[in-house]
Fold these 4 entries.
Entry 1:
Amino acid sequence: MIFDNKNSCMKLITNFFAFALLFSIAQKGYSQDPDFHVYLSFGQSNMEGYAKIEAQDKMGIDDRFQVLAAVNCPETGRKMGNWYTAVPPLCRCNTGLTPVDYFGRNLIANLPKKIKVGVINVAVGGCKIELFDKDKSAEYVATAPDWMKGMLKEYDGNPYGRLVEMAKIAQKKGVIKGILIHQGESNTGDTLWPEKVKIVYDNLMKDLNLDPKRVPLLSGETVNEDQNGKCGSMNKIIATLPKTLANSYVISSKGCTAEPDFLHFNASGYRELGKRYAQKMLSLLGYKFSDNEVPLRVQAPVGFDQLNAGIPSGKIETITYESKTVGSIRKATVYTPPGFNKKKKYPVLYLLHGIGGDEKEWLNGGNPQIILDNLYAEGTIEPMIVVMPNGRAMKDDSATGNIMAPDKVQAFSTFEKDLLNDLIPFIEKKYPVLKDREHRAIAGLSMGGGQSLNFGLGNLDKFAWVGAFSAAPNTKIPKELLPNPEEAKKKLKLLWISCGDNDWLIDNSKRTHNYLYKNDVPHVYYIEPGVHDFKVWKNGLYMFSQFLFRPVDTSSFSKYTILGTQAETNIRNAKYPQILPDNRVVFKVKAPEAAKVQIDLGKKYDLIKDGEGTWNVTTDVINKGFNYYSLLIDGVAVADPSSESFYGMGRMASGIEIPNKEGEFYALKDIPHGDIRIKKYFSKTANSWREIYVYTPPGYENSTEKYPVLYLLHGGGEDQRGWATQGKANLILDNLIADNKAKPMVIAMIDGNMGGSEGFNENALKAFENELKSGAIPFVESNFKVAADAKNRALAGLSMGGLQTLYTGVKNSDMFSYIGVFSSGWWANNKTLSEPQYEFMKNNTAVINFNIKEFWISMGGKEDIAFENCKIMMSKFDQIGIKYKYSEYPGGHTWPVWRHDLFMFAPLLFK
């Protein structure tokens, strides 16, 4: 039975606590450390802790996780106002497990070792939110029911006052970073609840002298309706809290299991809910929820751009300099760091604005001085001078009129000379700065990001640190931007490229990243949620500036991103899967009713469900190139609805294309392209219509010549589509032909599946041979401009197609002059099939060696499942005297290997 009205829910709570009280009675001069993070928590029974504390809840608690006792507990030896290792109970002497327990544990596990976490928990079972409103608290206490009075007495009748009292003690040692609330059951149906919570929050901010922009409030949902929560209807009201209280966040309770009363979470539910509080807080602190990896801050924390009056601040000034390039006196804004000393020499960051800005744009929109001041206070940045010039190098350099006028756009390019010949010499004369390239950085937003890449990478003798935030289309094409990648590898200390995932200019960043990736130039490619605005650019400055002028570890660059890049195999507008810079993959699957979800990429990965019913996982590094995968929902293998589907594994399966710096040979390029034609023909052999994919090379349509043909076969569980879609055969040939590395040819991609029987037995192989000779070849030779003789025919296949090639090609060497066998070989344990083949070869060795000009065998290394069979087969060939060539390319039994096989085999043909 579900109660979703205010009166029935409150009556249940009142009756429960009347009973619970009787049951309980029957059982009964300072230095603030910025690395000690303190969290206040308050609310009613679920925050107080109802579930029984189990053995696991008292084990393995890091002493970096502390609790400030809010009441005296002689039973546990705790005195009010003192800190202790956070062994439960954390609220009062006889309370139970609470979300705060696992909030703290998860924070500690994912924060740097230097950071400690302290919690203060003041909660009263069954109370309304009004109890914590200091202007209404006394009235509430005076009319409180008898079963509540004992709890109130432990707080001297003023829980809010006790919370503030303890918080002030905590502030002598640490810094309050956030507030946790779990309350609402007793206010079920109260639409004014968000406003009432805001009153409490605002009072805490005022009474503790806290900045509301720096201290978020995290509010947990009541037991969810998916767990038959009796007060679950309150969650609709809790969900509106962020509309009333800007810096507040709702923590979902979906899937968090409950006690039989359906009012309280059980121990498992508290552990999960506490983890969710922690995950949100970690993201607000800028850290990844790392799951036992080294803690890493990947984004700016909440409040990073807010003025902190309690720390030293730098100085902003406007300077003027003579520009011989422009022929005028120009302005720039300069930031000098806190404690600036003219006797000390500083590195310099030149920070550039966008097309609609000037030397004041960063100052007006980005608060760089506040961001940097806060970083200095944390000790996470090197002292530096920051110069913010006007990047529009012309006499009238104002951002007025038509900012896209040709002369104004050209002025952004002219600024390179102004920067190098006028501004930098001026700064180095006026300020005490280090003048070598290792102590000079350049970065900018939008148009300024393009300038930074153009000028920085174009003048590596001047800049060792280069950053672009949302680079604009003025960014040079990669080969012009960085014509000598090897020089960049030697000279660059850091190359940073960042952008919002919904920025309309993101393709500029992607293009540059792809080029750098292919050429092994170390760089950070940082994608975050956002558009083309200062939210993204401020975060870019926060992250970039912490790398500057100190040793960097290029091996860690791939970890610095929030989002990955959407896979090219995603369906249109699908955000996931996303590929991280190190080729790990993030999967997200919406399946709220599922009990278990996995991704099968050869290795199975268990996904974790979040509070919204979305399942998440980040994989290990995935093989480059094309990979099949399946989505397993409660054990049923299905195609991922976010991915393109491919016929493979004997069914429609999902596939993901992983970036491959060695995959230039199948990249889509601006060259002449051939066509893939899909044709149907009636097979008299199979007595059915069959489909064939035919690649015709560039120029085929207007040519009068007859082309040679490669008959190209797929593997088991695939069909005629495989080489065209998974294999990218057309692009491989287009590129080879354009580079004059392969002869123009027709490729006929045939369906090797014969009436549903697998191609691993004599009957199936014979059926395929008949189909090829009597059906496919006659159809191709009568419908396409191809030469119809053995010297112009080749036959190749992968895996099952490799067996079909061996069977048909060797027996019919008078029909095929070229044979390619990819990841295949006669099975050593099937002598019934293989021995007759070897006997045929032994008896016809001279003919086979004479007819077959190229007998090419390849494998995907030792991890290829056909590797041992192939080795045994080749040893047999050696004994018999069959001539062949062998090639090996690591990658196993996969499409990346077979693509490379075609790339290597095709240039050998028809010469």
Entry 2:
Amino acid sequence: MTHKWLSALVLFVWLCTFSVSAQEKPIAELFGKPVFESALMPDSKTLSQIARMNSASKELALIQYQHSKFAETLIEEVLEDFAQRQSINTDKELKRAFIEQFEQQILKEADDAESAASKQKINEIAETQVRHWQINKALYEKFGGAVIFKQNNPQFPVGAYEILLKNYQQTGKLKIFDDRYRAVFWEALEPPYSFEIEPANINFASPWWLETKVAP
């Protein structure tokens, strides 16, 4: 009897979950896959941290998080598709140079500098940074456009990002249905830009970390 009751309860919960998912309309579509707003929800701890860091209400923090997560989701998948089409593979020498430059700094911030997890973290950070720089370089060489300074990216080819993403939109690979998300997404990529770098000062000959000195 108990077994039947539990089975019925599991079935009921599954049906409710399926019903909610079926009723939710996607806010976007990328490569034919729907993007739902429910997938952009942070956990309560993350939401509280964002609200505290920005001295904002949880309602405002939620909106900020969702729009940021939305843009990150779309852009990362488009960049990965572009990288595959351009046959961009992580440069092992650049990765090694990144690790040599920042390994001690990252280990100092780690709870256990000797752990395998810390070593893995360094490797993952290096992989991400090198790959992003290589993609940004390829984007600028292909599309040109405005380049701006960002704290986490001294040369961010925002103009090339806009062209790339609009190309994907025009070919139907990227569709944004929700007006709110669409407006915020494109506004971040369109001029006017802050901290735009003069064309004469743009240089993708070598990555920024080869020219950065890290304090001991």
Entry 3:
Amino acid sequence: MSITEHHPAPTAHAAPTPAELGIGARLSLHPMTDGFVPVILGALRAAARPEVEVVTDDVSTFVRGAEHHVVAYLLDAISAAAASGAHVVAHVHLSRGCPGEVACTVDDAILRRPVTLGPLPRSHHAASAHWALYPLDDGDADRRGDHMAGIFAAIEHARSLGVVTGSEHFVTRLDGDLADVLGAVAQGWLLVGQRVRHVVSHATISLGSPSASAAGAR
């Protein structure tokens, strides 16, 4: 009797997962209303999608997935909260790369690959944001770290999108439709990720503020 062994054909290595690339976000929603609980929970339910992992605790909501899925979740959640009619403040924290959440075992060519964020659907919610970007650029044996180069490039990109309205202490001010503001934040984050292994970005976004209404739109 003969035995024939069957060996499966070699397969290409699977692409690293968002967890292996350290991609994710944290979101905190603060609706200025006595009925804040249903606004927050309703917004998180409205944004739910199978492509992202979502974990909520008593401080914030963690979101993990591919970059475009994470940003889409944030847009839907903040939009849903704003639809309540309350003044809403959202704190958005984005992170990708290493060292940090994950060990730096991913090749630079993969970690720094260009990632394109497609146009986000307009939310029809006017938003104002204070935005800060943190390229954690330590440099290497042949190059000194230069975190400001990435920050300036991201701000100029946001300026080209027409949402930069000023510079404040430690932050850049953005104004526009929520989709445009969040898109500028995310695109700057991804742009710097092409040159720096670990990039963190933070934005405080305000929607429906009575102060803004009284002062008039910028």
Entry 4:
Amino acid sequence: MRAPFEDSYRSLPPDAARLLRLLGLQPGDDFDAGAAAAVADVPASAARDLLGTLAGRGLVADAGGGRYRLPGPVRDYAREWAAREDGEEERDAALRRVLDHYLAGAAAGEAELEAEGLALLHRERWAEAVEALEEGLRLAERDGDRRTVLLARHNLARALLESGALDRAIGLLGPLPDEFAALSDDPDRARALTTLGEAYLRAGRPVAATNFFGQALEIVRAQESPEREGDTFVHLADAARRRGDAAAEGAALDRAIALYDSVPTGKAEAAARRRDGITPSSGPS
């Protein structure tokens, strides 16, 4: 799956390749030329030209209404390429620019409300994020296609989870994996399974959480995204810790460290420190 995208990326002009990498950092599922211009710090006219180049290589897709999205696993690959080729300061500046862009605009339509809500979520303004994403879901259910509605439910569930509304979050998340599967949307199915696992972990149900994380892992492995696979093993380690199973926690962290070491994520050191701090035990208590 990865090779065709990698080949297309390597054939891009430098400015288009940089835009693609930075688009992997922006919080929304889709975006317009204004957001692309903000994340790359280029004029809107230049961003439109670069998006045309990316679309011609199959690296961005037309989402309708002058909006674009990164197809399939490209967003994960773009983040990985950014970690490899762009410095931390540049990545942080790009993220700040696009968050400021979303929060400075007057959100009117569903897509703009979703983007604003996700920017608020990233800035940890939970209550405001819930309010924006609830309105975004209402508009999506009125005007959007099925995938747009499912993504809006997932985004709202994430905000509810952070605000402590676990029951509402789980209620929204529960049907999403099967509904994304019906659309043959494996990347978003994996994301929904991961968020569902996080919700059950916060609800004190680590065995159920382990099941959801395990299902997500199967999908992520097929996408050949080492960082996301490593993240999923960290989630499995979290669930093992909550079960009191130090051996399983250590084994999951070992896998995460090996995966993080294969890509320039900067996450291997934190996982290794956690691994070193595990007290050995014979298994679950």
